[in-house]
Amino acid sequence: MRQLGIDVRKDWDLYLALLPGIAFLLLFKYTPMYGIIIAFKDFNIFDGMAASPWVGMKHFDKLISSASFLQVFQNTLLISLYKIVFLFPLPIVIAILLNELKNMAFKRSIQTVVYLPHFLSWVIVSGLFIDLLSTNGGIVNKMIVAMGGEPIRFFLDSQIFRSVLIGTAGWKETGWNTIIYLAALASIDPGLYEAAKIDGANKWKQIVHITLPGLIPIILLMFILRLGYVLEAGTEQILVMYNPSVYNVADVIGTYVYRIGLGEQDYSFSTAVGVFESVVAFILILTGNGLARKFFGRGIW
């Protein structure tokens, strides 16, 4: 404690600048955690949390035995798995390709084009793709019909809708992650590439033996953090894009909580679902970090 007091007096201005961040965490992240007790009560909005009766694990038992939740859980895992498999490597590839460009003006132009969609809300992105993929005048279906095909109901066909989710998520977020990897590439010592050229290594060998190893720390960091969002699966995106026709393939935990909690006003059950999601995310991050430390010798902590 004495050393802490010395440190505070020495760098009091830095600790003062830290206070707003700490206050934000306490107010918006830790204080709401008190509401977790709703998951263990039969919460009545008129009685309040204190007067609502305790029911123990009742809502968690209902959650595990619910057939609809099992379908929702499966959808969540599948959509997250598809996003990891198809979208996680994409910004790495784009960052490496951009890093090899010598024309800086062209490089910055491409960076801007792939980065801009990140600033659009999912409401705007949803409206944009609904117009593009519509069976009633959408440019994509016009092209399909012009080539002799039949119009495709992208937002109503349960066999296609997940592909629409993956494609739109990739279009919107790939540029943001690309910037992160480009920043990591900038920290790699250029002397390593010069030495590799002297030894006769071509571009491919330089990428395999210098670029990718240099990216391993940030790739592990991003992957471990991504594991924490496996059960999130893009709730905001799905809420503005899906409809009852594709509930069987697109209803995920986040949308399920939204429909049950607000639609049916079953706050205790929806809170139990949220607690379940948080616990699984925490376990996944711990597991991912442990495996990263075991096989790569590094992790988030």
TrEMBL record:
Official protein name in the record: Protein lplB
Entry keyword annotation includes Transmembrane helix: yes
Highest taxon of source: Bacteria
Family per record: Belongs to the binding-protein-dependent transport system permease family.
Record field: transmembrane: 12-28, 77-98, 110-133, 207-231, 267-292
Subcellular location: Cell membrane
Xref: SUPFAM superfamilies: MetI-like
Membrane topology, record value: Multi-pass membrane protein
One GO CC term, this protein: plasma membrane
One biological process term in Gene Ontology: transmembrane transport
First-listed, main subcellular location of the protein, grouped into a coarse class: membrane
Keywords from the named record: Cell membrane, Membrane, Transmembrane, Transmembrane helix, Transport
Ranges for domain ABC transmembrane type-1: 73-288
Organism name: Paenibacillus oryzisoli
